[in-house]
Specification:
The chain is an alpha/beta fold and 280 residues long. 39% of the residues lie in helices and 16% in strands.
């Protein structure tokens, strides 16, 4: 279920606007390109590293999250670059983006009904065939353009995906001599995630598992991890869980890293228990 009018059936496809450009991040393509490439260069992944298949990256405004997100998106750049230069490596041709719903109540998940997304550096084509396949399961709702464009958790990843998949660091979409191929050669599938219980987690996991197993797919999970503060009704802090004498920021770091360790261990039950205990 969801808020009345927030989601609908038979939604007409639309081009998703970059509605947070100019506020959460710059709307100037050349400036944005230079920012993203600068952050990616600082967080470059070793060329000998194994290619990742999924990353978790933040969705705050770029002034807060941009440099941190580069450490995740360096792995997408690496996956694209290695495939371009090494035999037997598969370049991602479809990027799934899963982001939480901040503004409307949603039980389960919804798919973006956009046919294309403006990522400022270029348009990203949505894989509408995969979207239709997900809808055919009967377990996904459809976003309207208003709900889609109000949500930032997916949009904040689209420019980074565009820049990371363009493996020539010198390319610039505004440079007539070296415009690159921004947004070409791959598609995206955007999924808004609402409240999901243990059974729904297993259900959506089973639906998405075949896509995750396909090396041509890459997954981006949108999360800022801890939102600590009274405005978020999240203020865990004590002197025993992670040791005595910690400052609040040290407690938050320890709590987040505990969650990261559980995720890396792929321990779904342990992660649910962690969420129940920490409310993080």
């Amino acid at each position: 279920s969801a808020e009345p009018g927030a989601f609908a059936s038979g939604v007409t496809r639309y081009r998703r606007r970059a509605s947070h450009a100019g506020s959460w991040y710059t709307s100037q393509p050349s400036t944005l390109n230079a920012q993203l490439e600068g952050w990616l260069a600082t967080a470059a992944v070793s060329r000998t590293a194994a290619s990742a298949r999924a990353i978790i990256a933040p969705h705050a405004g770029y002034s807060f999250s941009g440099p941190t997100a580069a450490h995740a998106y360096g792995h997408l750049r690496h996956a694209a670059a290695v495939a371009a230069s090494a035999a037997g490596q598969v370049r991602p041709r479809r990027v799934f983006v899963l982001g939480p719903s901040h503004h409307v109540y949603l039980e389960g998940c919804a798919v973006s009904m956009a046919s294309a997304c403006d990522a400022v550096l270029g348009d990203l084509v949505v894989d509408t065939e995969v979207v239709e396949s997900l809808l055919a399961t009967g377990h996904f709702q459809q976003t309207t353009s208003n709900v889609d464009e109000d949500e930032h958790s997916i949009e904040m990843h689209l420019p980074y995906i565009t820049r990371a998949m363009e493996t020539d660091p010198s390319s610039d979409p505004t440079d007539a001599h070296n415009p690159g191929t921004f947004g070409e050669g791959f598609s995206v599938v955007c999924i808004m995630v609402g409240q999901v219980n243990d059974q729904q987690q297993a259900l959506y996991g089973s639906i998405l598992a075949p896509y995750l197993e396909d090396p041509e797919n890459f997954f981006v999970v949108s999360s800022d991890f801890c939102h600590w503060g009274s405005r978020f009704r999240c203020t865990p802090f004590d002197q025993k869980t992670y040791g005595k004498g910690l400052q609040i920021w040290e407690y938050i770091s320890a709590m987040d890293h505990e969650g990261m360790d559980i995720i890396e261990a792929q321990d779904a039950r342990g992660f649910n228990a962690y969420l129940q205990r920490t409310k993080n």
